[in-house]
Amino acid sequence: MQKNVMKWLEQYGLDFTDTYTTSLIVILGLILLTALVIHFILHRIVLTRLERMGQQSQRLWLQVITQNKLFRRIALTIQGIIVNIQAVVWLHPGTQAGDILILCAQLWIMLYALLSLFSLLDTLLDLSHRFSFASQLPLRGIFQGVKLVAAIIIGIMMISLLIGKSPLILISGLGAMTAVLMLVFKDPILGLVAGIQLSANNMLHMGDWLEMPKYGADGAVIDIGLTTVKVKNWDNTITTIPTYALISDSFKNWRAMSESGGRRIKRSLNIDTTSVHFLSDDEHQHLMKSQLLAPYIDAKTQELTTYNSQQHTDLSSPLNGRRMTNLGTFRAYLQAYLRSHPRIRKDMTLMVRQLAPTAEGLPLEIYAFTSTTVWAEYEDIQSDIFDHSFAVIPEFGLRVHQTPTGNDMRSIGHPA
């Protein structure tokens, strides 16, 4: 093509040197003009309309594509391809100007092809968040790994193009630097492997409640990346954990609790053991007024009466026979109260049990599950249950064990 331009210029009486230089300038000008026209058509007309359609469209995929600049980067890649084709067709092969222009065009194509791949991966990642089955996969870490590999490959190809050597030579030379590369890319490699293991073993999903005291993490997972996992703690701080630490160290995932629909209450009341005694007749009559306790007391009284009569027990001594205690009756009351509570799951474990006595008294533990996993609602239910439990303890003649306070000591020193 350049020879044709030179012949055309020689027809107007120009010598060879001026003809060559002028033809080169004309061709470069045509290439530049063509590039500008194509740029104007693509960016001012086509892409502007596409972006306007994306903003107004109800189609999610079109909105996401326009937001991640995928079309713009593809358009710039196409412009580089067109310039490269023009340089090959119009300029003399092997000339300095042609080689420089082709080199720049190829570098341009590689760069924007890489950026287009990045935009495509970002688009797929944004779309995956809209689907429940894909949003639980560690796609961010996998895509970041793909970006890293693609960037390395393109970087090697660009360097080989600049030095005029085959990429295979550079790749073979990198074999000697394997130890250095493993050290430099240790975290990305470990993070990629950890992300695959987390996904394959269904260990961690976006939105899971993760608790990892070693790193001070106690909150919801908001991001699973190639090298880090971000946890938004309940105090609204962000904790960053290395992805591979979730494989090498242990952590607690509360997802199963959320999926079960019930959250466990496991808390104790410390009873003063000196307040435990057999029920008197007055206490027996008083507790019979409770609608929750009346069936239990009737059944228990009949059971004890039958047993003692069969054993011919002498009930004149409290050491003989079986009797009802205020602690056992209180435990039965709490169990009946929990079974009648509308916010306690009846299909899950529900019990009130005694633990081993300690210096702090006799722990009476409530073990049950609420019908909700919402934190605030769970705390309200648990607080209501223990508010009621502390309030009714005196009705059974029991006392709560409490370490003496300064006010207790002053009362001892200055009795009323």
UniProtKB/TrEMBL annotation:
GO cellular component, one term: plasma membrane
Nuclease found in the keyword field: no
Domain Mechanosensitive ion channel MscS residues, every copy: 187-255
One Pfam family cited in the UniProt record for this chain: MS_channel_3rd
Mechanosensitive ion channel MscS C-terminal domain boundaries: 334-388
Gene3D superfamilies for this protein: 2.30.30.60
Listed GO MF terms: mechanosensitive monoatomic ion channel activity
Membrane topology listed for this record: Multi-pass membrane protein
An example Gene Ontology biological process: cellular response to osmotic stress
Domain of life: Bacteria
Keyword annotations from UniProtKB, A to Z: Cell inner membrane, Cell membrane, Membrane, Stress response, Transmembrane, Transmembrane helix
Coiled coil: none
Cell location: Cell inner membrane
Keyword Membrane attached: yes
Bilayer-spanning residue ranges: 20-42, 100-121, 142-162, 168-185
Family: Belongs to the MscS (TC 1.A.23) family.
Protein name per UniProt: Mechanosensing system component YbdG
